[in-house]
Design brief:
Layout lengths: L3 E2 L10 H13 L9 H21 L6 E4 L2 H15 L6 E5 L4 H12 L3 E5 L9 H7 L4 E5 L13 H11 L2 E5 L11 H4 L3 E5 L10 E5 L25 H39 L3 E3 L10 E6 L4 H10 L2 E2 L15 H5 L4 H4 L2 E5 L6 H25 L1
Parallel strand pairs: 1-11, 3-4, 3-5, 5-6, 6-7
Antiparallel strand pairs: 2-8, 7-8, 9-10, 10-12
Helix pairs in contact: 1-8, 2-8, 3-4, 8-12, 9-12
Length: about 375
């Protein structure tokens, strides 16, 4: 039985070319980038070359890229840093109800520090109403943070239009683009964002490295203090192999994105059609078209989601029940309940996210076992109830 990995929104495998350049860096550029001798200069040079590649991936200038330990740190740096730096203007912040917990929990933390937060609802397709954003903004609003694409349902948000509103009102606008960067074209200038979070392991780079785009002129307060690395934005000796790996992954993603995106979209549409046609009472969650390519999220009424994952894993197929970051929680998905789903329906969710190396044969292998798993689960449910 061949194993199939279809959980790319949780993480992607490191591309062999990325791994190769990282291994080379471990031995050839082991110096501390802050050192002034030749070893340090070589390490610093590789970091700056990688910074340019990451910047190019999102249409930014290299000096606007700050390397972090990943998307969570980038989100925290953007949100807490802005709250601290701009609190003299006000203490009201805005986000949506379906954000990643790296954003939601950070907002809750700030509420404990005396900030007032507004959590915008979404429609049944998972999209924020732009009019709700406009109405929620107050004189004391200093930050709006709306994710670019949702990790659980794949729905895209109207970031460009929201950015036009915040730019006109002089409010800092952050987007968590961890799911979208490297998968679809992302340009910080056309999106009208001031801050953008991204993470290497979502586009075939290593874990433990990410970045925050900080638009020139925006000045969030740093969260880490020490040696003044990353131009005082983020102190701490740089993770040179990780940064180089992220740079290589960014370079490859930019070059190969057109064909990769088309491949993912075709596979996603094929899988969605087959599931809806072959499995009764299966429903797509999120927007049917305005979603990430290759991202298929569904609910199967009368089925327990965790059991589906176990049975599929026993067949060598790796998928997810939602966000991998909260997969150990027994609570229903906050994203799905925000769409209006019942707790029972939310517990019957399945997320299949294909990657560049998946094929139609992989989809066929999944569909050879999934309908039977669903049918057996429903029969057991009926017997118990």
């Amino acid at each position: 039985m061949s194993k199939i990995y279809m959980d790319h929104s949780a993480t992607t495998p490191v591309d062999p070319d990325v791994a190769e350049v990282m291994m080379s860096t471990l031995t050839s550029s082991f110096g501390n980038p802050s050192s002034i001798h030749g070893y340090g200069n070589e390490a610093r040079k590789t970091v700056e070359e990688a910074r340019k590649k990451v910047a190019a991936l999102i249409g930014a200038n290299s000096e606007e890229i700050v390397f972090t330990s990943g998307g969570t740190e980038a989100d925290n740096m953007a949100i807490i840093g802005t709250a601290l730096s701009y609190q003299g203007r006000g203490r009201h912040i805005i986000t949506s109800q379906i954000e990643h917990h790296a954003v939601l929990d950070t907002f809750k933390y700030l509420e404990k520090q005396g900030y007032e937060a507004t959590y915008l609802p979404v429609n049944r397709l998972g999209q924020v109403d732009i009019n709700h954003v406009n109405k929620a903004i107050r004189e004391d609003t200093i930050l709006v943070s709306i994710m670019h694409a949702n990790n659980e349902i794949g729905t895209m948000q109207a970031i460009e239009e929201i950015g036009e509103i915040t730019r006109e009102k002089g409010i800092v606008f952050h987007t968590d683009a961890v799911q979208s960067v490297g998968r679809i074209p992302v340009n910080v200038k056309s999106l009208n964002v001031d801050l953008l979070s991204l993470s290497a392991h979502k586009f075939y780079g290593p874990k433990g490295i990410g970045a925050l785009y900080i638009r020139s002129g925006i000045k969030p307060a740093p969260l880490l203090h020490g040696g003044g690395q990353e131009r005082n934005w983020r102190s701490g000796t740089e993770n040179v192999p990780g940064i180089v790996g992220m740079g290589k992954a960014a370079e490859m993603s930019l070059e190969l994105m057109p064909q990769r995106s088309l491949h993912l979209r075709e596979l996603g549409h094929y899988l969605t059609r087959r599931i809806i046609q072959e499995i009764p009472h299966a429903y797509l969650t999120g927007h049917p078209e305005d979603r990430l390519p290759g991202h298929v999220s569904l609910v199967f009424l009368g089925v327990e989601g965790a059991s589906m994952l176990i049975f599929l894993d026993s067949e060598g197929i790796a998928v997810s029940g939602g966000s991998a970051c909260t997969s150990n929680s027994f609570d229903p998905s906050h994203v799905l309940t925000a769409l209006g789903l019942t707790k029972e329906a939310a517990h019957s969710s399945l997320r299949v996210t294909v990657g560049k190396d998946n094929t139609y044969a992989d989809i066929n292998q999944l569909m050879a076992v999934l309908p039977g798993i669903i049918e057996r689960q429903r029969l057991m449910w009926n017997l118990v109830n």
